[in-house]
Predict the structure.
Amino acid sequence: MSDLKTLLTEITALTNTIETDHPELYTFLDEQPITIPAFKHPNMNKKIMKEYLDDLKQVLNHYIKSHKDKK
């Protein structure tokens, strides 16, 4: 359980960083209807949360690289 708690802490910290440092990117992180689970109690396990964290990191890194030259 502590691994899941660590992942959730990292996700929260990264999301806060994106919101604070890159608010223009943060608007794109809103949940899309297609990504909202259809189940009442979806299984959010360590693997799923790790994939989500990795996706957030990729989005941020891509954004930073693609906008670094424009500044």
In short: The chain has a mean pLDDT of 81.
